[in-house]
Design brief:
4-stranded antiparallel sheet; nucleotide-binding; binds adenosine-5'-triphosphate; alpha/beta; Rossmann fold; 274 residues
Length: 274
């Protein structure tokens, strides 16, 4: 399917009756297969997965261990190529890209947020936020201003010169989120972003994702936690390398999940005051 067909199909699937405002796709995945060829066997980690992610969507990818989540994430992040099928980023099919092209698009157009933050210990907050630009060369006054703005955006305006070891886990994850936005990515790709965080900090990070998504940012997040997935707009479930379910999250369930987490945080903070 061409990108244009994909956009059209997204329009018909996602915006019935709104031909004047088609939603473009952040990515379109068609019949995606990934086989790992080992000495004695071939592992079929993905066996024909198809789904689209319109711009502005917030997708949680779930599934049991071994269902293919990391394999899919690696391809969404341009870290690996499919065996068959296509994965479109804009007009580009990653299946047809060279390794150099993949590396380029990875550094320029994907915003990664990892469970373990992956910050560079020797660099300050602002310098860590600028890391995606290192691959492209120049960091001028405009880029520095933007990285400071992003640090402020995630509530770290008073920590610009701090090193990661001087920050809490939640603060480090905020730096990672700011870094993920530096290149105006197709989407933020988050792998268990709250996996190392306590519930108060988890709530802070999920609130930042809520706000970014409300501003139009596309978020694709892998999680094992139901209460994290319920904060997304849609849950894609994999099973045995296939798409098992692809369901929207009821807005009432989203709001209830948000409210439950807020109450939980207030309770923890009250207990901490005692
Ligand atoms: N590099 C590899 N070489 C061979 N097999 C692999 C490789 N990576 C993953 N697999 C296999 O592919 C299948 C899917 O693995 P994947 O890591 O994508 O699942 P997952 O859903 O992310 O699991 P988990 O939740 O445990 O991280 C598994 O059977 C796994 O053993």
């Amino acid at each position: 399917m061409s990108a244009t067909d994909a956009y059209r199909s997204a329009e018909s699937k996602w915006s019935p009756g709104s031909a004047t405002s088609p939603r473009k796709l952040a990515t379109s995945i068609q019949n995606l297969e990934k086989h790992y060829v080992l000495k004695s066997e071939t592992v079929k980690a993905l066996r024909g997965v198809s789904f689209d992610v319109p711009e502005g969507d917030y997708v949680a990818i779930m599934g049991p261990s071994g269902s293919g989540k990391s394999t899919l994430l690696n391809m969404l992040g341009c870290l690996d190529k499919p065996t068959r099928g296509s994965l479109l980023l804009g007009d580009d099919d990653i299946a047809r890209m060279s390794d150099d092209q993949l590396a380029d698009i990875r550094s320029r157009r994907i915003g990664f947020v990892f469970q373990s933050y992956n910050l560079i210990q020797q660099l300050s907050v602002v310098e860590n936020i600028q890391v995606p630009l290192y691959y492209q060369g120049v960091i001028g006054a405009e880029e520095t201003a933007r990285s400071i703005e992003l640090a402020q955006r995630v509530g770290l305006g008073d920590r610009l010169d701090h090193r990661p070891t001087q920050l809490s886990g939640g603060q480090q994850q905020r730096v990672a989120i700011a870094r993920s936005l530096m290149n105006d990515p197709y989407f933020i790709l988050a792998d268990e972003p709250t996996g190392n965080l306590d519930s108060v900090t988890t709530e802070e990070i999920l609130t930042i994702f809520d706000d970014l998504n409300a501003e139009g940012r596309t978020i694709i997040l892998v999680t094992h936690e139901d209460d994290v997935a319920e904060r997304a707009k849609r849950v894609v479930r994999l099973k045995d390398g296939k798409l098992h379910k692809d369901e929207p999250v009821d807005p009432a369930v989203r709001e209830a999940a948000r409210e439950a987490q807020r109450r939980n945080v207030q309770q923890i903070l009250r207990e901490g005051d005692r």
